[in-house]
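Justification of resources, computational component.

The compute hours requested in this renewal are based largely on the per-chain cost of generating structure records like the one below. Each record pairs the submitted sequence with a full structure-token output. That output is archived, and it is also reused by downstream analysis tasks.
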Amino acid sequence: MSLNQLSFYIQNSVEDINSSFSTPSAVVPIEWNKNNFDFSILNVDGSCIGNPIRAGFGGLIRNSACFFLAGFSGSLPSSTDILQAELTAIYHGLSMAKEMGIIELVCYSDSLLSINLIVGNPSRFHVHAVLIQDIKVLLSQANYTIFHTLREGNHCADFLAKRGALSDVRLNLHHSPPMTCFLC
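The structure output for this chain reads:
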């Protein structure tokens, strides 16, 4: 065996031994992703926290380069309904985008139930039927679409939703990102 072959064999053996004793990482980091959309991106979330339970909502709008455009948070003082918080976040986010004059927007929510209620045909007797219909109207008025995202990719919206749940303000607009919320 030549010295080069021996050296290669030893290096491969060392790598095999090291990999045998290392724990494989099954965790894949998930972070905010614009999924190659060149539109503005709205991330929204609802939150129910504390004892007694307080419901809140929040979200933020970024451009496709991840620059913060606007954010919001708010509380639902008489509610402990997470679905209402999620739907309220979507409604306020879409309303904010409309008021800002944004005509192309992709909305991401980690609430698959909310998205299914919005894109599907819920019963007109659903407890949140009016709110769902208001969201559908906002979606139809511009080039707005809504998609599901994993909770791990929705950190900033989650932070703002928790901030809303802990406040007594029904709707608070944020013109700059909170210092503790890291964007992208």
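The chain has a mean pLDDT of 86. DSSP finds five helices and six strands in the chain.
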